[in-house]
Amino acid sequence: MSAGGEHLKDEGTRRQVVLAGGIAGLISRFCIAPLDVVKIRLQLQIHSLSDPTSHAHLKGPIYKGTLSTLKTILREEGITGLWKGNIPAELMYVCYGAIQFTTYRSTTQLLAQLDNHRLPQPIESFISGALAGGVATASTYPLDLLRTRFAAQGSGEARVYGSLFSSIKDIARHEGAAGFFRGCSAAVGQIVPYMGLFFATYETLRPVMASAPEVLPFPIPPGSGDAAAGVAASILAKTGVFPLDLVRKRLQVQGPTRALYVHRNIPEYQGVFNTMGMIFRTHGVRGLYRGLTVSLFKAAPASAVTMWTYERALKLLQEHEIGQARKE
């Protein structure tokens, strides 16, 4: 932070921000991959668990809660089943993290040039976060779609796609370019308010959390304030926009392979509002929040790991370049 009340985030050069963002995304994704697979499976499960007759005729697994789903996947698909879709997801998270933090840094610096007309810090953070999230989401969306489809498919003969390259060729051949962007409007519609709320909350809580070690009667690990602020910001933002995340997942598995995934009874949806309306009519408000619990379990540590890793990686990169400059 700059001195004298200016709330400009001038943390490192563009190259440092890109590297730190990419590293944060890479590590965060690997840590939360199993919870991501569980979340996707629960979001794609449409039948009501409270009504046994609604799924008595269905083929495939019936998931009931986070731990039960984890155990079922482990039992039926092995440990690798919890990391399905990890290759496109890792690519997505690295690119997403780099684009997100670069856009966020550039936007905050641009807004800081308003001088006497500067906006309050929470509003600046909201605008910067929303723009960063929208740009990063749209840029990496095809990888997000591939991640969802791989996580949704079964194992062995039940696999829909054999490899990342075969999935790209198959989608391009049977669905065209538009097939890679199914549900993109829901994704952007979700991520703009999500990242806006996330960064506004994070930047508000971060200074408060940073002073926590001074008042706590026991020592805490370095960087815990960044992680705690990331967790709190993530929970608040994720809950607010979760229905759009669920709609995005349902739309991502539309197309000619819709009936080939683990859940064979995914309805045919068209459009964000039509999908949301159909889910609400058939399953009520609870239907729009299916998988929220595991999503929060995933989002909180993911955000904590992301922000902690980003701040630490950025600091190490800055210290390294300072050391190199002194040697020269």
Strand-helix topology:
Blueprint: H1 14-44, H2 66-77, H3 86-112, H4 121-152, H5 164-175, H6 184-210, H7 212-215, H8 224-252, H9 272-288, H10 292-327
Helix pairs in contact: 1-2, 1-3, 1-10, 3-4, 4-6, 6-8, 8-9, 8-10
Protein model, in words:
The protein is mainly α and 328 residues long. Helix 4 packs across helix 6 (184-210). The model is unreliable at 1-10 (pLDDT under 50). The chain has ten helices and no strands. The longest helix has 36 residues, at 292-327. It has helices at 14-44, 66-77, 86-112, 121-152, 164-175, 184-210, 212-215, 224-252, 272-288, 292-327.
Please count the beta strands (DSSP E, at least 2 residues each). 0
What share of residues is helical? 55-70%
| Mean pLDDT reading | 83
Task: Report on the biggest sheet.
Answer: none
Q: How much of the sequence is in beta strands?
A: under 5%
Q: How would you describe the oligomerization state of the chains in this entry? A: single chain
Which features would summarize this protein structure in a list?
globular; 0% strand; single chain; mainly alpha
Brief write-up:
This protein has 328 residues and is an all-alpha fold.
